[in-house]
């Protein structure tokens, strides 16, 4: 495809606005002064679909776990795993960059923290939002989980029962209440957050009448009647956005207990908060972010070098040119890897993705079996440059990062965020330091 207008130029162009892409852009911008870094993403970051927890490695590929120390297990992973490509030291360095630009907890130890989820499971994770800190399962303080009847994704009594059945070292109960103001079941999570952020007045029914009360005080009063001697109270992850720490502190003071958020499914406020922190960090480092426009094609020089990528913007085809490129478009879920009944492919550059010719070999007959499609992705060299079917570098100035990579099952391993951060970091640094 040929574009008929002058190309927009940069030194490093990152394609994809998820955790891998944002880390790559940030790492590139920080790696070398004066490097012009541009990130292009089609849709809103996938972080809004994420829990906000940052996993490095929760389970071995064979299912063993949960792992107490993910860093000790990395050297034992299969040779084609992305962690083996980047190495343990790079994983640590990349996490240090993440720690530097976020307010997450967990950097004080190599050990995984065990965090209760909205389903009542315990998830091993390496980094977690400050809002979840008081809920870690290694604390033996008694816990009250509070659900809202308008947020049906979190059944607090059921989650409490599951945690008890899992053998957590603390007493846990769950209750469901109406959120003050009696919001409807289709209310966006941001509406809850805004009410608590601003402490705006809500209508509270009382003795046959109704009064207007600040949201935080009204919520605390509704919880107090259910609180016994629990030292911790967990809520759905909707406790504010811009003033989240203030909201938790105010509720905690009113309840006389430590308040925490239980990570939820999409849309995820912790994920959106993390997105804001990373977007700000990229901008502060001098990177430029363009969202809402897909990369649909590329041009090359015929000798294995990407010349431009073509971005569709309002029906027009806009060429963007860089010296180095990073592909961080996601996997099968994020549409960075596509499939038909006959093949699996990477849709922008046509990078090779190894797969069996017989599509019935792509999956296991058992629901929780060893599904090969879970490991579909781009194979790379040690510099994260995609390789063709013969093991040759496809493009000398293109690197891949995050879920578009093959060789690992991030859902089973609980390794998605860690791989995205580590490979995004390495791809960004290597791209920036290769600039002539």
UniProtKB/TrEMBL annotation:
<dbReference type="InterPro" id="IPR050315">
    <property type="entry name" value="FAD-oxidoreductase_2"/>
</dbReference>
<dbReference type="InterPro" id="IPR003953">
    <property type="entry name" value="FAD-dep_OxRdtase_2_FAD-bd"/>
</dbReference>
<dbReference type="Pfam" id="PF00890">
    <property type="entry name" value="FAD_binding_2"/>
</dbReference>
<dbReference type="InterPro" id="IPR036188">
    <property type="entry name" value="FAD/NAD-bd_sf"/>
</dbReference>
<keyword id="KW-0285">Flavoprotein</keyword>
<dbReference type="GO" id="GO:0004368">
    <property type="term" value="F:glycerol-3-phosphate dehydrogenase (quinone) activity"/>
</dbReference>
<dbReference type="InterPro" id="IPR009158">
    <property type="entry name" value="G3P_DH_GlpB_su"/>
</dbReference>
<keyword id="KW-0560">Oxidoreductase</keyword>
<protein>
    <submittedName>
        <fullName>Glycerol-3-phosphate dehydrogenase, anaerobic, B subunit</fullName>
    </submittedName>
</protein>
<dbReference type="GO" id="GO:0009331">
    <property type="term" value="C:glycerol-3-phosphate dehydrogenase (FAD) complex"/>
</dbReference>
<keyword id="KW-0288">FMN</keyword>
<feature type="domain" description="FAD-dependent oxidoreductase 2 FAD-binding">
    <location>
        <begin position="11"/>
        <end position="419"/>
    </location>
</feature>
